[in-house]
Design a protein that fits this description.
6-stranded mixed beta sheet, binds guanosine-5'-monophosphate, about 25% helix, alpha/beta, binds magnesium ion, 3-stranded antiparallel beta sheet, single chain, about 35% strand
């Protein structure tokens, strides 16, 4: 699997260091807010768990699965809710954990859903952000790293369901798509 990677963009060490900074900031901001952490499946799972471990605050965890990719490298623009929350979020402080914000459509869809359900506050923490890809006006409140407009894999990010378990974020070799 490692042989399919052309280059590493962020190593495990880079990620861990940045997570510590983000977690510290979030802990300060959410100290007395008992947030619900909404992790967007499946890509954000590694990041969410690593972050949660580092946060010494009262927080609950919930999951939502919203898909805009259909196993390829391009967003389809069609958003599907595949798995819904278990918790009622009315009146709650919600912190959404994402792997990457690209066009922003997934986040827009989710934030509108959460707002409709009466969340008290909604913020977003994304490991990666691709500002160049943005098609709708949406931004993450906490961002790990800004990345160029390339298709990335690893640390939760997949290509056709694979590569999520790479401990770093990298770029696939073009030969992988061609096969
Ligand atoms: P958006 O709706 O912002 O265009 O897309 C967000 C979702 O698309 C992310 O949650 C992620 O699952 C997927 N995505 C966007 N860019 C990439 C990328 O470079 N690599 C992978 N593997 N998924 C991506
Ligand atoms: Mg995602």
């Amino acid at each position: 699997m490692n042989n399919d990677i052309e280059r590493v963009i962020y190593s495990r060490e880079d990620i861990v260091q940045r997570e510590a900074e983000l977690a510290r900031q979030i802990c300060e901001d959410y100290r007395d807010k008992k947030p619900i952490i909404v992790s967007v499946l499946t890509g954000a799972i590694l990041f969410s768990i690593d972050m949660l471990e580092r946060m010494d605050i009262y927080a609950q965890m919930d999951f939502v699965d919203i898909s805009s990719f259909e196993g390829g490298v391009k967003s389809t623009g069609k958003i599907k809710l595949i798995h819904d929350l278990k918790n009622d979020i009315k009146g709650r402080n919600v912190l959404v954990m994402e792997d990457i914000v690209d066009s922003g459509r997934t986040l827009k869809f989710l934030m509108e859903l959460l707002a409709d359900r009466g969340a008290k506050s909604i913020k977003v923490c994304s490991l990666l952000d691709k500002p160049e890809g943005r098609m709708v006006d949406i931004r993450a409140d906490y961002v790990g790293f800004n990345v160029p407009n390339e298709f990335l894999v690893g640390y939760g990010l997949d290509y056709k369901g694979f590569y999520r378990n790479l401990p770093y974020v990298g770029v696939l070799k073009p030969s992988v798509y061609e096969n």
